[in-house]
Specification:
Helix content: 55-70%
CATH class: Mainly Alpha
Protein name: HD/PDEase domain-containing protein
Largest sheet: none
Radius of gyration: 16 Å
Number of helices: 10
CATH topology: Hypothetical protein af1432
Order of helices and strands: HHHHHHHHHH
InterPro entries: HD/PDEase_dom, HD_domain
Number of strands: 0
Number of domains: 1
Pfam families: HD
Length: 201
């Protein structure tokens, strides 16, 4: 288990990471903004447990930008992860990121819904996937010290995230019946998994 002595993973101290945080805070409901922060924090804790060695900045960018497609500013007619990936790519290119880094962050966002992403050879993709699963469904929380889990939740409260994500997911399925979210809903009972995650809200 990851020790509770480990500090809550913070954002990398780079201009790009700070700009990404500012973007997310400016366009996301606080419930969603806190989710993407927890995604990074849970993902980093589990990456340490799994002895992964991700690039922290790229993992952070992928984590905090992964739900841009759920925001009013960046929503569009395609699957939300595609809209979000393209929005993130534009954001990064405008700030001088390399095409290699843009491609990786874009893949992180595109793949974060796909169960097989946990087997991706790129640790940044895995980190965000396992972080999303931990925060959405409570998956692998037992691999993180309970005091660290509590500290992460206190630092970025859920604020009714279960209700928020169920509504957002169901609306995505309704509006885009051929999208990725709809495909996953046909394969798995995603709404029930959101609702029964081991969190208060």
């Amino acid at each position: 288990m990851v020790s509770s002595d480990v500090l809550i993973p913070g954002a990398p101290d780079s201009a790009l990471a700070k700009a990404a945080t500012e973007l997310v805070m400016s366009c996301s409901p606080r419930t969603l903004a806190n989710h993407v922060l927890r995604t990074y924090q849970f993902g980093m804790a589990l990456a340490e447990h799994d002895r992964l060695n991700p690039d922290r900045e790229l993992a952070y960018l992928g984590a905090v930008l992964h739900d841009l497609g759920y925001t009013e500013r960046f929503a569009g007619p395609r699957s939300f992860e595609v809209e979000g990936a393209d929005a993130a790519a534009t954001f990064l290119r405008e700030r001088g990121a390399s095409e290699e880094d843009v491609a990786l962050v874009r893949d992180i966002i595109l793949l974060h819904l796909i169960p097989e992403a946990v087997n991706d050879p790129r640790p940044e993709v895995v980190l965000v996937k396992i972080g999303v699963s931990a925060d959405n469904f409570g998956r692998r929380l037992d691999d993180i010290d309970s005091k660290l889990v509590a500290a992460i939740l206190a630092g970025a409260p859920r604020l009714g995230f279960k209700d928020f994500i169920v509504r957002a997911h169901n609306e995505e399925v309704r509006r885009k019946p051929d999208g990725t979210a709809a495909m996953l809903s046909r394969q798995y009972d995603i709404t029930k998994r959101f609702a029964t995650a081991p969190f208060d809200s």
